[in-house]
């Protein structure tokens, strides 16, 4: 486990081999002590530059992610090839991206559950998917299928707006029997997306996801849900609110999804509303940066040393230096909030916004898993007087998530090609004040 950042003395976690305390503990086994599990629809992103007429001609709707039939997909693909419009092809899928990015950041194991072709052709989509996934992402539990994985046509117009057309192939054929109970039991988090319910009648993916949620609840593993797109939420916000309350601990969304879910446009107020259902909220807001909202133990709250921020909740960041805890672990829960503007004001030139939110979530997962790892290694540390959810304060997690989003915006693929540069590892240094 690579820690989310080198710490000043008060937070310092000894990861160096020379540390005598660590030398007392048994050597790390090949199999990592901490991991996250995600379920996804196995998808390859096929990115192309198109005009709005193209989007209309194929019955798509600008800015939406829609599922298309095989014949439409074939015609669309043939036109992209004929007109030479394809610019990039990457492994994709919102949770696949998150697991990959987590493994790159933590230099540690994530487990991806989903389907994979039984017969893989060199150069084919399945082959590309595997080649473009971190070697730290454990793919041993993928379920074989006879047929193709999914394709996500990512159509980008002249204003940079993305329209997704999903050709599902066999991506929703994951069965409940393919969900490994013990792998979920030992995980730091189970990560799902709202896309998993977007299936045809009778497809097994929703049941497989519910099986995974049941296991997670059985072993008190936090369930993380990312909203995917506002259109999935907008179909039935009430149903999602109930789903969150019944099954989810951590919610990741952008401000549009937040508005669709809660009916509240202000991301801070929407995140606050969502705390009625979940323990922690990550709400990205494009050029506005990102918000987090969570619970802390009142007795252990910590005052911020940053300027107090105005907003719909006055001075909302007052206790952002506190660590997050799940509500049911609190004696006296206190709501805490934090916000950060885009790192360095955002990149000079955004290469691609694809996956910026997934990147932020990967950083949050890294912090949560680091906390569990530290608790297992140094259980009597003063850092574990309470059963915290995060290793760092809400403010630190915001910085880290924001930094990772910036990295994704600076490259074409939604998947990080490398970790953050070493010299930036300290999240508390003046670096952040530049
Ligand atoms: N136009 C932008 N300028 C600066 N930063 C941006 C911009 N768009 C996104 N970001 C950064 O990326 C993060 C995630 O972006 P967002 O578009 O909200 O995610 P999603 O991919 O889930 O829609 C934001 O919190 C912000 O830090
Ligand atoms: N599992 C699914 N992933 C999907 C679907 N439609 C799009 N996507 C993936 O999202 C990311 C981009 O993420 P974003 O947070 O920037 O919107 C991209 O890589 C797509 O593969 C879907 O229906 N299911």
UniProtKB/TrEMBL annotation:
Segments of this protein annotated with the region Disordered: 1-29, 414-434
Acidic residues bias (residue ranges): 425-434
Pfam families for the chain: PfkB (PF00294)
Taxonomy of the source species: Bacteria, Pseudomonadati, Pseudomonadota, Gammaproteobacteria, Enterobacterales
Gene name as annotated: gsk
Cofactor dependency: Mg(2+)
Enzyme Commission identifier(s): 2.7.1.73
Protein name, UniProt field: Guanosine-inosine kinase
Enzyme kind, highest EC tier: transferase
Comp. bias intervals (Basic residues): 1-11
């Amino acid at each position: 486990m690579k820690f989310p950042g080198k710490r000043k003395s008060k937070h310092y976690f000894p990861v160096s081999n020379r540390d005598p305390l660590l030398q007392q503990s048994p050597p790390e086994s090949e199999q990592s002590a901490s991991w996250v599990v995600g379920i996804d629809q196995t998808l390859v992103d096929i990115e192309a530059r198109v005009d709005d007429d193209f989007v209309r001609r194929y019955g798509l709707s600008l800015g939406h992610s829609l599922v298309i039939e095989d014949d439409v997909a074939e015609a669309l693909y043939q036109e992209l090839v004929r007109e030479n419009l394809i610019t990039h092809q990457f492994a994709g899928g919102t949770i696949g991206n998150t697991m990959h990015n987590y493994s790159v950041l933590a230099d540690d194991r994530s487990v991806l559950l989903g389907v994979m072709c039984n017969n893989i052709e060199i150069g084919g989509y399945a082959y590309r998917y595997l080649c473009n996934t971190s070697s730290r992402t454990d793919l041993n539990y993928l379920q074989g299928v006879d047929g193709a994985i999914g394709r996500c046509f990512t159509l980008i117009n002249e204003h940079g707006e993305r329209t997704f057309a999903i050709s599902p192939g066999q991506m929703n054929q994951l069965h409940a029997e393919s969900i490994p109970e013990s792998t979920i039991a030992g995980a730091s988090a189970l990560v799902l997306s709202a896309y998993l319910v977007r299936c045809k009648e009778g497809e097994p993916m929703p049941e497989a996801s519910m099986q995974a949620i049941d296991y997670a609840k059985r072993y008190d593993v936090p369930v993380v849900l990312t909203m995917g797109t506002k259109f999935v939420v907008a179909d039935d916000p009430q149903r999602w609110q109930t789903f969150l309350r019944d099954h989810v601990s951590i919610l990741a969304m952008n401000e549009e999804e937040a508005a669709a879910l809660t009916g509240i446009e202000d991301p801070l107020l929407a995140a606050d509303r969502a705390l009625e259902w979940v323990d922690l909220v990550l709400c990205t807001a494009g050029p506005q940066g990102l918000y987090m909202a969570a619970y802390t133990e009142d007795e252990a709250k910590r005052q911020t040393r940053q300027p107090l921020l105005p907003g719909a909740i006055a001075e909302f960041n007052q206790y952002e230096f506190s660590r997050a805890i799940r509500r049911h672990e609190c004696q006296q829960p206190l709501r805490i909030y934090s916000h950060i503007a885009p790192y360095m004001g955002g990149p000079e030139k955004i290469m691609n916004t694809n996956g910026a939110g997934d990147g932020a979530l990967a950083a949050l997962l890294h912090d949560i898993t680091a906390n569990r790892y530290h608790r297992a290694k140094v259980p009597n540390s003063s850092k574990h007087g309470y059963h915290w959810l995060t290793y760092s304060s809400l403010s630190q997690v915001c910085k880290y998530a924001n930094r990772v989003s910036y990295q994704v915006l600076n490259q074409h693929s939604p998947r990080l090609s490398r970790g953050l540069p070493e010299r930036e590892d300290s999240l508390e240094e003046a670096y952040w004040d530049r």
